[in-house]
């Protein structure tokens, strides 16, 4: 099992920290000495996760704060409260997301749910927290992508799936490719401006979490599994292993600017952490820059001057 380096003195925000890989990452970062902000949509679930972490690690320093990435108002409120309470933020882990709801849902801002929750919300959160991250000696932003990004395409003519027939899997793939492009564009900006900020990305391979059922069950009376996560003959792993690429990217001194990490075992779905392959669309700097500009307009957020 990957051992998280000492995080004493560092403050880390983990979105979606009440379950799955986010919950695992929050516990292991707290155990390594970080003060962890569990950024969650459901307060009760967040407090339950916090109680479990403190029970397992009595010296852990952690707190719960509410954040709904499907609401830009919630994102702004979270960032503003954090700015009031912290002198700086060392690490932001953009982990929370939704996968493959059966039909097209919208966020409260009118965005397609997967694009809004998986990409637009984290984009806005990152921009709004950049002043705090840049105030840290060595700020770091780790954004979670997915193996599905390999088949994703950025459809600028229909980002919100209003013109084409909605596809849960292709919409998810687009949102996770967008996450990777966010990470890479932020890394380029950071290097161009001489910031000490380090932006990188990770993916969990095929990890068994409630991500496979939560989105697929939206609007239904019973629990359903996403077709993405319903592959019985494909190797899979548990959150303890699936969180490790994220932990390496967010906490390890060897994780580089603009790096992308994932499992290095069979089909890139399981196994110890290693560099993940970038296909042509993932390396398209022009698309990344164009998407950033479009997203600034959609979210009303931008880089610090």
In short:
Belongs to the short-chain dehydrogenases/reductases (SDR) family. The protein is α/β, with parallel strands linked by helices. 39% of the residues lie in helices and 12% in strands.
Question: What secondary-structure arrangement, pairings included, does this model have?
Answer:
Layout: E1 11-15, H1 20-31, E2 35-40, H2 43-56, E3 61-66, H3 72-85, E4 91-94, H4 113-134, E5 140-144, H5 168-193, E6 198-202, H6 211-214, H7 239-242, H8 244-251, E7 260-263, E8 273-275, H9 285-299
Parallel strand pairs: 1-2, 1-4, 2-3, 4-5, 5-6, 6-7
Antiparallel strand pairs: 7-8
Helix pairs in contact: 1-8, 3-4, 4-5, 4-9, 5-9
Protein architecture, described:
By secondary structure, the chain is an alpha/beta fold. The chain has one domain: NAD(P)-binding Rossmann-like Domain (Rossmann fold), CATH 3.40.50. The protein contains 9 helices and 8 strands. The chain has an 8-stranded mixed beta sheet with strand order 3-2-1-4-5-6-7-8, sandwiched between helices. β4, α4 (113-134) and β5 form a beta-alpha-beta unit. The N and C termini lie far apart (41 Å). The model has no long low-confidence stretch (mean pLDDT 93).
């Amino acid at each position: 099992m990957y051992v998280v380096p000492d995080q004493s003195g560092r403050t880390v925000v983990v979105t979606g920290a009440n379950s799955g890989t986010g919950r695992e990452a929050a516990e292991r970062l707290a155990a390594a000495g970080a003060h962890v902000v569990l950024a969650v949509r459901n307060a009760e679930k967040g407090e339950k996760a916090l109680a479990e972490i403190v029970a397992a690690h009595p010296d852990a320093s952690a707190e719960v704060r509410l954040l709904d990435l499907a609401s830009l108002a919630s994102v702004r409120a979270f960032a503003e409260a954090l700015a009031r309470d912290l002198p700086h933020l060392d690490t932001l882990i953009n982990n929370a997301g939704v996968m493959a709801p059966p039909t097209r849902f919208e966020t409260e801002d009118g965005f397609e749910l997967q694009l809004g929750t998986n990409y637009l919300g984290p984009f806005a959160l990152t921009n709004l927290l950049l002043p705090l991250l840049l105030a840290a000696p060595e700020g770091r932003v780790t954004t979670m992508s997915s193996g599905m990004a390999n088949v994703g395409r950025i459809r600028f003519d229909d980002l919100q799936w209003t013109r084409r027939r909605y596809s849960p899997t292709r919409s998810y793939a687009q949102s996770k490719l967008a996450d990777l492009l966010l990470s890479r564009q932020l890394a380029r900006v950071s290097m161009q401006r001489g910031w000490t900020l380090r932006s990188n990305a990770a993916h969990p391979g095929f990890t068994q979490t409630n991500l496979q059922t939560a989105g697929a069950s939206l609007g239904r009376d019973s629990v359903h599994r996403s077709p993405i996560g319903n592959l019985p003959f494909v190797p899979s792993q548990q959150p303890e292993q699936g969180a490790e690429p994220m932990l390496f990217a967010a906490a390890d001194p060897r994780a580089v600017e603009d790096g992308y990490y994932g499992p290095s075992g069979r089909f890139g779905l399981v196994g110890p952490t290693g560099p993940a392959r970038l296909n042509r669309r993932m390396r398209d700097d022009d698309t990344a820059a164009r998407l950033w500009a479009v997203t600034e307009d959609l979210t009303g957020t931008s880089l610090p001057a």
